[in-house]
Amino acid sequence: MKKWSSDRWLSIVAIIASLGTLFTIVYQTNLIRKQQYASVLPYLEMWNSNPGREGESYKYVLMNNGIGPAFIREVKIHCGDSVYQDDPASFTHRVIKPRDAITNFYYTNIKKGRLIPAGDRLELVGVLNDSINAPILRKWLSMTDSIEVEIIYESVYGERWSSRGIANEPRRLN
Length: 174
Known about the structure:
3 helices; six-stranded antiparallel sheet; four-stranded antiparallel sheet
């Protein structure tokens, strides 16, 4: 049996060092990728806002509390057993009550393809200075389990998320 020469030992050490370096590079690349995804993460949340005196005004608010933009892919309203491909403003007008009957009603449409920048706040529907209709709209959109707004959106890197209902944490879809 031959003894191994120093050249052979040096070759084996070089191969082991190369494999260690390769492992380190792959690990660091994975960490960098995770950091890049996290640095553009959108985080859409919906909640109620009731400024002024109790019962006079109501707002259904959407905010991107993340650090990246949200690309809207789908907006749905879950109402009982039915699902409507509508935004809250259109749903309010077509299904709940004719919008013209609600005084001081205002809205912001949100449709597929819209971009919500980080830190942006949208008042999806609202009623100002109307003590009759503000509580009704609040009840329809937030105080019952039968109506929930769901927004499906993507990050810059194509990660799909769903934000559904008041004060619920968004959940990742893919």
